[in-house]
Structure formats: structure tokens, C-alpha cells
Amino acid sequence: MSEKLAGYPEKLLCPCKVCRNLCHQCINILYEHLVIYEIDPTYKIWFHHGEELSRDDDVETMETFDSYNLFRATNIDGCDFESHLEEWLNHSVKFSYRGHWKFLKEDHPFRSKRSWFDGEVEHGNPPRIMNGTTIAEHLKDFVNELYVHHNMDVMHIEKNVCESICNTLLDVAGKSKDGLKARLDLQHMGIRSALHPQEKGTRTYLPTVLHTLSKLEKELFCKRLFSLKVPDGYSSNIRNFVSMEQCKLMGLKSHDCHILMKQLLPVAIKGLMPLGPRDAIIRLCIFFNQICQRVLDRESIMALENDVIETLCLLERFFPPSFFDVMIHLVVHIGREARLCGSVQFRWMYPFERHMKILKDYVRNRARPEGCIAECYLADECVNFCNEFTDHSIELNTKEGRNEEWSNDVILEGRPIYRRKEIILTDELLEIAHRYILLNTSVVEPFLKKHAASYTGYIINGQRFHVHDIEKSTQNSGVSIEVTTMCRSSAKDVSQVPNLVSYYGVIREIILLDYYIVQIPIFKCELENVPNGVRVEDSLTLVNLHQSQWSVGRYPFILASQAKQVFYSREHDSSN
Fold first, then answer.
1. Which of 111, 161, 162, 333 ranks highest by number of CB atoms within 10 Å?
2. What pTM value is reported for the model?
3. Total number of domains in the chain
4. What's the domain range around 324?
């Protein structure tokens, strides 16, 4: 074997089934791998170890060699990991991508935290991001000006990160990133001695860690997700993926993981673990929530890039090295790609996966799926082409949205759902509702006489609202509204300034006021604001609707078009 070709004077590329010539090993470890895991059967010609390739070699071997060179040249998103982050875990039998504190600024306090990471003060620099010119030295046909070497799919990265976090928190057997092998890796690396496995007699015990939930905490975690109700069309029913008996999540799809990482996971872990690991996970969820927004600002993205590095450093403080696979590391580069390429919604796999669902529905004969897809796709194309030349034709593949509004000459906005019920408002409530409409709309000023009707549901602005008393599998009664009002800092302060105040509450009644020519929808709500029944804690908004009185009890009405939909989750059974 040629040590020169291997790239290390004391290490060689390991050709076993696990390493597959992707990592260097010492001679004795390489020998153990070959004995335990055997040689990779696809490695027929030892071109990584000195054997030269000839033109007579098969094409498959040549393509394997080229693919290998491409991987080592570009690595992951252009990072040069070979001498920086890439680390092989002998017991977990996989690569670990740690050392994210190298990305921090030189004067960042995390660099001096020896006990948090590997016991040493970090003075190194981050791995270089190779540009097209550097890669062209390895690959002559690569584009020199290419800053983004390949697009990263945020959908699958988010899904893998979500599954790693949930399975590790719930300590799911076979899927958790923390176990005996992970602890043996810590022992082999000589770090975090308090977490090393302890042998007592014939048994091996693993010390408890901060990020693993206890049995009661697992039950509360699963119960929060199982009892959670979200608005209609927001996501699938999360309770279908929660196993209360086994205390784990099963069968999560990509969009379910997206919803968990954006909003639901911080709600589920609130108060269930120490502040350190909980804060790190919440910060990671906030990063995914902000990076997946429709509108991104370049300056805010640069701030997100720095924040996510700190977040990964905090995760490295609490989670084992086996947790940091390549998917966790790719989070570092998501912000850079968003800054260069724009919003992630134009680059992730959701539209392609959904279109694949349409193509799969074309299959009628499972013995010939390709033929079925081709025939049905051609038929749709022909019919759509003919419809363009036919008057009063109905477009195919257009399904009316579940929460779309209907055009109506009478109702000013939105549309009611469910059964109409005639009601009689008291003079006081009718006057309050009428005053609110006159102050916020100009179309009804000429009309004074009015009648009212009540509904239990209403659709407006593409959202479905229900009254709070209806029992459904979804939660559509939560609303919030932002109003501009005069505020002062304290009771003694005489000066008042205009400020934007947020109110949160639930819908108690949906009323449609009839002014003969036009009908105006309004919501009667229970609302609270800061500090009467609302406070912010752990980046979550906590609302208490059972105070001594409503903050806006005298004026409970809002226009249906002003309502923004929110949903609530109980922290525990005794929560209000």
C-alpha cells in the first residue's frame, strides 16, 4: 500500500464495508476493521492504495474513483473537513462533525470554555469554504465562479434534525443518539468523564444526562402533543403519531417535522428539562422558524448565521458526539445559502414531493406503473390543451380550497359555515357592535336599522374560525388582534404615547349584522393583553383567560377581517 497516496504518514484509507475508503485509520485499527467488517466487495481495484487504473478497467470502477474524488474535493457544501471537523467514532461506527466553536469570533467567550467541549481552549480558525477555483484544481470541468456547489434541501435536513432531537429526548431504543456506544466514544476521546459508562459487577450503568427526559417528563411531553389541537389546514393531526403507551413519536412525515421544529417542539418541552439544553433546542427551533419565512432580510440572515453557530456550540456542550452527524452540521450552511440564493421555499423538496404524489395516483396497474403515469399525464395534457379553445370549459386539476371565500353581493367579506341561527342582541350589545362597525367601516353609514344572525363557524382571509364551545379535532377559536392605543409607563405617569398593543383570546360568538343591503361579520371574543393575562416566557406567549374580569369586557367585538388566528396548548392539566 502507498502511504503517500493515502495522504497521512501514519494512517491509511480503510477499505472495509463501514469506512468504504472515506476515512483514514491507523494500521492496527485498519487491520481490526478488515477482520471484523470485511473488505468492501465493490472495491475491486485498489486505486486508493497504489494500484494504477488502466484503460481496460471497467467503467463502473472508473466512475467510483471519480465520485470519490468529487466527494473528497467538495466535501460537504464546500467545507474542508479533512483536517478540521470530520472525526470517526469507533464505537458508534460513523462520522461526527463537532468543533463548531471554530466558527465563532476570535474573542467569543465560548472559545475559552474548556469544560464545555474537549478540555482545551480553542484558537483555531473555521474550515475554509472552497470556491470554484479551488475545486477546479481537482476537477477541471467545474464552474470557477460557482459559490454554491450544490443546493441543500432544508426539508430533509429539518426532518433529520427533528427526528434526532425527539428520539434522543425520549431515549427511543435503536434511534437515540445517546447510548452505550456513544458513552464509549466519550471514554475513548477522554472527555466528560462524569458520563463514562460505569461497570458494577456484571452490569454496565450509564450516568443520567441533562437532555434525557424522565419517565414522567416523557409522559407529559407526549400528552401535550397528543392533546394539542391546531387550526384547520395548519398540519395533520399530530396525535395520530404519538404513542402514549411507548412514549415515542412514530410515522412523522416531513411536514409534521417542519411544524414541530417551527412551533410545537418548544411548547412540548417547556419546563421539562434543565434550562441549558432546553434553551439550545428552542434556539434551534427559532432558527428554523425564521429561516423558513417567506421574506428574508440579508442583515437578519447574517445575524442568524452567527446565532446558529452559538446554538450548535450549546448543543455540543450537552449532547454526545454521536448526535452530530452530517445533517446537524449542515445547519451551519443553511443561512449562507439563503443569503446567496434567496428564500428556502423556492429550493426545498415540498413541491416535487407533492407532484410525485399526483403521479403515483395515476397508477392503476401496479405491474406497469411507468405506462400508467405516461398515459394519464398525456391525457391530462390533451384535455387541458383542448379546454383553452372551448368556451365555458371547466379546468381540470383545479380543486376549490377548503377555506376559500365565496363572492357574495350581500355579505361584505368572508362566508359563514354551518347552520344559521337567528338571535336577539340586547340593546347594549347591539349599540356596542353597531358603534364598532361604524368606526371601522364606511359602507354602512347610511343605514341605521339592523338585524343579527349567529353562526358557529366562519371562513375569512383563507382561514376557518369556530366558536370556542364547539368540540372538534382542530382548534379554530383562538384569535389575536393588534391595536394602536394610548399608553403610559406607570399609573403616576401623566404623559401618554401611542403604542401597538397585542390582545389574545377566543371567539365566543360569531354574529352577522344585517343592514339590509350589506351584512357585516363580527366576532364576540374574550380578550386579554399584557400584563393583565398575557406574558412571554421561554419565547412562548402565555395567556390566562380566567382572570377576575376581561381586559376589554366592555368592548368584546372585533371585525372578522381583523382577527389573526392563533392556537393554544395547555402547559399541564391545571392550566387555564
1. 162
2. 0.69
3. 3
4. 88-107+144-346
